[in-house]
Specification:
Blueprint: H1 2-26, H2 32-38, H3 41-44, H4 54-74, H5 84-103, H6 112-136, H7 141-162, H8 170-194
Helix pairs in contact: 1-4, 1-8, 4-5, 5-6, 6-7, 6-8, 7-8
Length: about 200
């Protein structure tokens, strides 16, 4: 029963994130296509005239962070057979990072450093967490491979983005490195519900 509950939470968290971003992008002060290509996720969360639904995007950050904490600590930990302490640490790093992104916005010189720190914790920490999970489980061989692939893709894209911050298409790289964790949450939800 715990597996199904956590599976549903992972599904809801991931789907809420995708829908919240899409709705926020629809009302952003740019076309839907241009928002996804040329504007970062963080921009959707800045409370200003450009993003009238910034609260929705920020709620998605918080919900995915809480989803990860609840899911990993309540049930998913049972599938981790080694490096459990590191698993807990990176779960917290990732979750706290994404919640910082929601609460401390970019674009403000006084707070942008904290926002950037939160983003790095969430993106880099999250993809390291996926690689760690893939190497620490005792079950789900196909699931482990999927998790590893997502983590590696996320890390590679993150490093490409890190060295191309001024590139016009940097927001695309940012999204790709974030979506690995969102997709993992969805896949995990499906696997847990099937248990």
């Amino acid at each position: 029963m715990k597996s199904k509950v956590v599976g549903i939470v992972f599904l809801i968290g991931s789907l809420y994130y995708v829908l919240a971003e899409a709705i926020s992008a629809t009302f952003f002060n740019a076309s839907f296509f241009n928002t996804y290509i040329f504007h970062t996720i963080s921009e959707l969360g800045i409370p200003n005239v450009n993003s009238p639904l910034s609260w929705l995007m920020n709620s998605a950050f918080i919900i995915i962070g809480l989803t990860l904490i609840f899911g990993n600590f309540y049930k998913f930990k049972d599938y981790i057979v080694k490096s459990k302490t590191i698993f807990y640490i990176f779960t917290l790093i990732t979750s706290i990072g994404v919640i910082i992104v929601a609460l401390i916005h970019g674009g403000n010189p006084l707070t942008s450093g904290y926002h950037t720190l939160g983003a790095v914790m969430a993106i880099l920490g999250g993809n390291i967490l996926l690689v760690l999970i893939s190497k620490s489980m005792g079950k789900f061989s196909l699931y482990q491979k999927e998790t590893l692939i997502l983590g590696v893709i996320g890390l590679v894209v993150f490093w490409i983005m890190f060295f191309n911050m001024e590139n016009a298409f940097m927001p695309v790289l940012e999204r790709l490195s974030v979506y690995t964790l969102i997709l993992w949450s969805f896949i995990t939800g499906v696997y847990l519900i099937k248990q």
